[in-house]
Amino acid sequence: MSLEWYLALSALLFTVGVIGVLIRRNAIIIFMCIELMLNAANLAFVAISRELGDPSGQVFVFFVMTVAAAEVAIGLAIIVSVFKHRETVNVDEVDSLKG
Amino acid sequence: MEFAGIKSLIFYAFALLTVASAVLVVTVRNIVHAAFSLMITLFGVAGLYVFLQADFLAATQVIVYVGGILVLILFGVMMTSGRLQMRIQIERGQLILGGLVALLILLLLFGVISNTPHWEGIKDDGSTLEPTTRTIGEMIMQGEFLLPFEVVSILLLVALIGAALISRKEVRDEE
Amino acid sequence: MTVPVINWHMLMPELVIVLTFVIVMVFDLFKSIRKSILAWVTIIGSAIALWASVEMLHAGVNGSQFNGMLAVDRFSMFFKIIFLVSTILVSLISINYLDRGDKRQGEYYVLILLATLGMMLMASGNELIVVFLGLELMSLSLYVLAGYFRSVQVSSEAGMKYLLLGAFASGFFLYGIALIYGGAGTTSIPEIASVLEDGEKSPLMLAGMFLLIVGFGFKVALVPFHQWAPDVYEGAPTTIAAFISAGPKAAGFAAFLRIFTSALESLQPEWIVVIVILAALTMTVGNVIATAQSNIKRMLAYSSVAHAGYVLVALAAANKDGISSAMLYLLVYCVMNIGAFAAVILATTEDGENLKISDYAGLGFRKPLLALFLSIMLVSLAGFPPTAGFVGKFYVFRSAVDAGHIWLVVIAAINTAISAFYYLRVVVVMYMQEPDEELEYHAYPGLLVFTLLLATIGVVLIGVLPSYFLGPAQISTQFF
């Protein structure tokens, strides 16, 4: 498989992630779509690193994974705290988070 | 030749699996189904890393993404819905706008990728590279990537402090 | 591949900030220590780092650390001065603001310091991955700070909105880096520049460049990527809104300037077009929508969007004058914008914050000192002489005219006129209108007045003696 295939695949994955962020309303699903985007970038990094024979691309991916983990930890804490408000302040509002 | 054929077949299968499940993440209505589709995508990407002979990253992908991030997301789903189901509808206007923007990006990326010269292609001659774990470890711990490593450790500290801060009750009400 | 030799002297500002946040964390453990001590530790630590940065700027440092990953040059020092000034001012206004009830404040200052560290890495990062990590360090701290008032719903929601759009922007930024890595085969900024100079303009580089612009556009709130800004500024604690509008914006531009005028210098014909369009859009949309706002925090949010547009005008000049005028403008902008937010905090009544512009009626007579401070900040934001705002705009416009962007400067001038309308409207309301009801104002907290005094001195000083500040900016345009 040549590099083009991997890059095309990663471009496709990235685009799917972007579509998801733009069309979905649920905060957690938007988060999953952002993970798709990051994974697409990681795939591109690894493929290019293999093509160039330069391991530093793989080191970047290692760092990006750490960043993604940190982002998810903070993100979910914030999302859950918003949800707690909606639930306690106004039960009807919970629907707006789903919709 | 037979070996290369089977190999490319497996590659296509992984590629299809990855993209199809990614599309499911975006389109499926049930949020738990979306999370499970994301798991398949993440496994698919791990498989592609194996193809690219990035053994360390393939393992890390499974451990960190599937074992950590995805489980965290599922916890988030649990804590925000109580019951594990949330029905989600998509507005039409948003669908069209999002689709248009995304199509533009896709065309740009595909155009760019197909126009890039001088790629010999990754050699698929069955040869194997050395395991990458040692190289990566050396680059991080004693080589050029010492600074990013330190920064990432501080970043994790921020995640720790931030998540603890947000989940803790605010003390202001008790006076 | 050997262990890099580290010259600790060159990392002074960063090390001081790291040490300060460790001290704040340890102090926070002791219940007996008054919470304002934490703020003072933060301020003193930042002041020491500021002093170190000024000294290093004077000494003319020019080197790099960690195998060329971190550029320690005058450019980064100038920006570190901007960030640290912002951090000090924001910590000063936070003391009274937080004391109204919050009992645990350690994390607040720790996160402010860590965000500052992230900004410093963005300004110094000579490797795209370091810039990315600095950006993430800054952003993650800011997401938490925006949602700091957990018991207030709008604050949590501001945090969530900021987080989702910020993470989305990071995705674009990262993919842009990946494509540039593919096109150039490296992510080191000087190496990318030399690859491009050799005449290799891979289409991948161009696509990567566009994605980087999108990512930066979200982070510094350029139109059409600005929608998050007003909501986040309105919902976040006012001190944090001031912080987000100042330091992080300057940090975004620092990385923007370094990447685009150093690494991607050879792609100038391509990116200048985009920057010019974005500049015109950002100024116009920001200012026009700001005129329609009745909430002062939202007005300041749109005004800060517009100010990012003025910085882009300087960036469009894309020469040494452009870079130095952008740097001066960012310094001026940070001081006057934090000053304006500080005045908003000062105008607090017994019922809480007072954010409607109509509530400011009659303030000129009942709170003359506050009205005077706010007026000076607004006049400076509008860009009238003899304030710093005028000086900043003057150099920006001049550099753009010299570079031949006449019509862009015409648009910018028209925008300045529009912005004068809504800034001066607040002044008019304060001095010319009678209040509908008598509002109970808090007594002046001494520290807020002191901060406003500092900001006012800064604004006037830069306005009267611009050469003292432009000079350092002009010698700081050389990247390592």
Kindly describe this structure:
The complex is a heterotrimer of chains A (99), B (175) and C (480). By secondary structure, chain A is mainly α. Chain A is 87% helix and 0% strand. Chain A has 4 helices and no strands. Chain A is elongated, with a radius of gyration of 17 Å. In chain B, helix 1 packs antiparallel against helix 2 and helix 2 packs antiparallel against helix 3. Chain B is built from 6 helices and no strands. Chain B has 2 domains: 99 residues, Up-down Bundle (Four Helix Bundle (Hemerythrin (Met), subunit A)), CATH 1.20.120; 42 residues. Chain B is globular. Chain B has 175 residues and is mostly helical. About 3% of the residues of chain B have low confidence. With 480 residues, chain C is mainly alpha-helical. Chain C has one domain. Chain C has 19 helices and 2 strands. In chain C, helix 5 packs antiparallel against helix 6. Chain C is globular, with a radius of gyration of 21 Å. Chains in contact: A-B, A-C, B-C.
What is this structure's SSE topology?
The complex is a heterotrimer of chains A (99), B (175) and C (480).
Chain A: H1 3-23, H2 27-52, H3 56-89, H4 94-98
Helix pairs in contact in A: 1-2, 2-3
Chain B: H1 2-27, H2 31-51, H3 55-81, H4 92-115, H5 133-141, H6 146-167
Helix pairs in contact in B: 1-2, 2-3
Chain C: H1 12-28, H2 35-59, E1 62-65, E2 70-73, H3 74-98, H4 106-124, H5 128-146, H6 153-184, H7 189-197, H8 203-219, H9 228-235, H10 238-263, H11 268-291, H12 296-317, H13 320-346, H14 363-366, H15 368-382, H16 388-402, H17 406-432, H18 446-464, H19 467-475
Antiparallel strand pairs in C: 1-2
Helix pairs in contact in C: 1-2, 1-4, 2-3, 2-4, 3-4, 3-10, 3-13, 3-18, 4-5, 4-10, 5-6, 5-10, 6-8, 6-9, 7-10, 9-10, 9-12, 10-12, 10-13, 11-12, 11-17, 12-13, 12-16, 12-17, 13-15, 13-16, 13-18, 13-19, 15-17, 15-18, 16-17, 16-18
Biggest interface between chains: A-B, 67 and 83 residues
CATH topology of chain A: Helix Hairpins
- Poorly predicted runs of chain A: 88-99
Largest sheet of chain A: none
The level of helicity of chain A is over 70%
- Strand percent estimate of chain B: under 5%
Query: Low-confidence parts of chain B lasting 5 or more residues at pLDDT below 50?
Result: 83-88
Number of structural units classed as domains of chain A:
1
